[in-house]
Design goal:
Helices cover 39% and strands 19% of the residues. It contains 8 helices and 7 strands, in the order E-H-E-H-E-H-E-H-E-H-E-H-E-H-H. The protein has helices at residues 16-29, 44-50, 70-75, 92-99, 119-130, 150-157, 171-178, 189-205, and strands at residues 3-7, 34-38, 60-63, 81-85, 103-108, 134-142, 163-168. Strands 3-2-4-1-5-6-7 form a 7-stranded parallel sheet.
Length: 206
């Protein structure tokens, strides 16, 4: 079975897809056969793959289509690593994503807005952690000039889960993804270092 990392947050705008694309890309560049599984109806990860240049050195990207279960997509793959980009919503699919993951990463912005009103999701996440799922928060769109906010620290302190270093708010992320690439492709060395650090942290947990 592959090592499966799910990026999940019921709130939109958390930077979930950007993080999923970059984690899949860095795992691929690490020499591990990697599949980025797009389970979001918006299909943003699949759209990214369609913009990649010819011969691009990136992960395989698959869309979870009708008639194909998530369990089958993960269980029947030949990949060593599967990165799941989950939809920005909370429903039955959220539970299926968590059930098929080895590690759930929850991207959160420094304001903590992503966790407001998310008590039901956090309860389901805790339930899966109690059944063996590894989980962590990952800072997303943080200001490179400051530390995480007191609001986010307070929100995270209520849950016994680690907070990973995550990704900063940098133009290079949007620019590279918009071109069908990642910051690993020479856009920003500091951003590339962030991605590699996040991957190292996630790999240890998963």
């Amino acid at each position: 079975m592959p090592q499966t990392i799910a990026l999940v947050n019921p709130k939109g705008g958390s930077g979930k897809t950007t993080m999923a694309i970059h984690l899949a890309a860095v795992a691929h560049r690490d020499g591990r056969h990697t599949t980025l599984l797009d389970t979001d109806p918006q299909g943003s990860a699949l759209d990214w793959s369609r913009r990649t240049p010819d011969g691009y050195d990136g992960p395989r990207v698959e869309k979870l289509g009708h008639g194909r279960t998530l369990a089958a997509a993960v269980g029947q793959t030949d990949a060593e690593v599967v990165v799941i980009d989950a939809p920005a919503r909370f429903d039955d699919h959220t539970g299926r994503v968590l059930s098929n993951a080895d590690l759930a990463l929850v991207p959160v912005r420094p304001s903590g807005l992503d966790l407001w009103g998310a008590a039901e999701f956090l309860g389901v996440l805790e339930d899966h952690v109690g059944r063996g799922l590894e989980a962590a928060f990952a800072a997303s769109q943080k200001d490179v000039r400051s530390t995480l906010s007191d609001e986010l620290d307070a929100a995270l302190s209520q849950l016994d889960l680690p907070l990973l270093s995550g990704l900063s708010l940098r133009v290079s992320y949007a620019r590279s993804v918009g071109n069908g690439e990642t910051v690993l492709d020479g856009y920003d060395s500091d951003a590339a270092a962030e991605v590699r650090d996040l991957y190292t942290e996630a790999k240890k947990l998963a």
